[in-house]
Amino acid sequence: MIATLQIFLIISAALFSIGLLAALSRRHAIFILIGIEMMLAAANLNFIAFWQFSPVRAPQPVGVMFVIFTIAIAAAEAAVGLAMVIAVYRHFRTTNVDQLTRLKG
Length: 105
Description:
Layout: H1 5-25, H2 29-52, H3 62-92
């Protein structure tokens, strides 16, 4: 099977859809963060696919630089998100986002 741009885009769309479903349908904050990470992985797959199959070859690997930047952003997002989840869990003893209505000012 020959890898084409369409195959990568279909896989990326499926991965993004699964991540969106996980982020919107789950009640626990950890699963929401996992869904967001899956959506970022789908975006990274798109960056690499478009860079690899572009008709004009760039002298620098531009797609790889974008992916490395988004991986760094995703790592920072995961660290901050998990720190917030741990702080909320210590205070409310739950990670269920429906029970966090008392956080309103």
